[in-house]
Amino acid sequence: xxxxxxxxxxxxxxxxxxxxxxxxxxxxxxxxxxxxxxxxxxxxxxxxxxxxxxxxxxxxxxxxxxxxxxxxxxxxxxxxxxxxxxxxxxxxxxxxxxxxxxxxxxxxxxxxxxxxxxxxxxxxxxxxxxxxxxxxxxxxxxxxxxxxxxxxxxxxxxxxxxxxxxxxxxxxxxxxxxxxxxxxxxxxxxxxxxxxxxxxxxxxxxxxxxxxxxxxxxxxxxxxxxxxxxxxxxxxxxxxxxxxxxxxxxxxxxxxxxxxxxxxxxxxxxxxxxxxxxxxxxxxxxxxxxxxxxxxxxxxxxxxxxxxxxxxxxxxxxxxxxxxxxxxxxxxxxxxxxxxxxxxxxxxxxxxxxxxxxxxxxxxxxxxxxxxxxxxxxxxxxxxxxxxx
Length: 389
Fold this sequence. Notes:
Elements: E1 2-3, E2 8-9, H1 19-32, E3 36-46, E4 49-52, E5 71-79, H2 82-87, H3 90-101, H4 112-118, E6 121-122, E7 132-136, H5 137-149, E8 156-164, E9 169-176, H6 193-205, E10 209-216, E11 234-240, E12 246-253, H7 255-262, E13 266-267, E14 274-283, E15 286-292, E16 297-299, E17 302-305, H8 324-333, H9 339-342, H10 346-356, H11 358-370, H12 376-385
Parallel strand pairs: 1-5, 6-14, 7-9, 7-17, 10-11
Antiparallel strand pairs: 1-2, 3-4, 3-5, 8-9, 8-10, 11-12, 12-16, 13-14, 14-15
Helix pairs in contact: 6-10, 6-11, 10-11
């Protein structure tokens, strides 16, 4: 049997024939497949070594070859034919190339050296790159209270937005709750491209970015979860402890998980305790397509702060939906403040984006960030929408 980086094939040569006869048979086969073969090297595994076959006049028996041996072909000059290239997937070609280089590889199966060289090795992240995570308590308390009001009967997800400092401290300033229709065991997020665009635009104008996700678990479910966002990434788990009390835990998602997710190696999983992969990965001393989520989690210390934006408007995509009257009440309560300060509220700005459009709200975001007075025309429009005129 002959292996190249492109394929494997068999040639029939008597044991008493020479190495040169074997080379001629191989060259004939390759040319019949459309290859251009000018020069190549043959080698084979002998114990723990890989020996070349330089002396063409030796018999195959004298060279140490016998029926069933695998001979590895390395092309020095020429190229393999199109027919051979089309027969194998890229994954198979890479596997054969690894095996052709490896002197320990048996004719079939795998070996530790090949696994080490070509497989993904899952390694726990030794320490967190994030120093700590700080929450605006009004934001996290609002999420926690809503889940409590639902009796922890269904799962709930929120996307964390905030800042990452030069010292790698993460500040969560608001929690966006996307449209969702969850059960007690599954998160079912609904597509809403228009709202997602508004969220990203508003957050960007406010100088904030996505920093992770928060997920609550129902009483019927095991409490583990790995979100699918960029690095650095905070994953917050809200659940119920053994005493029936709400419990909040924060973790950093490892950089390796984020890289594997971005390469599309991660598959959806119904098991919250395991991460599924498209292909086998190497975990400690064995291969597997499932890996315990704790390989990708590092616990984080939690602190609290007062965010530079407000979180006291009705949160989007809940059972109680904000109305124009709620907008009017909000402005009445905030009447002693400059309008730009009242507008410094993500949930309010998202509500206004749905009502007025992103172009109008973009100007209001800049007013809030730069602490600039709102134009008279814009303020009249806001009061009109709020039913105050």
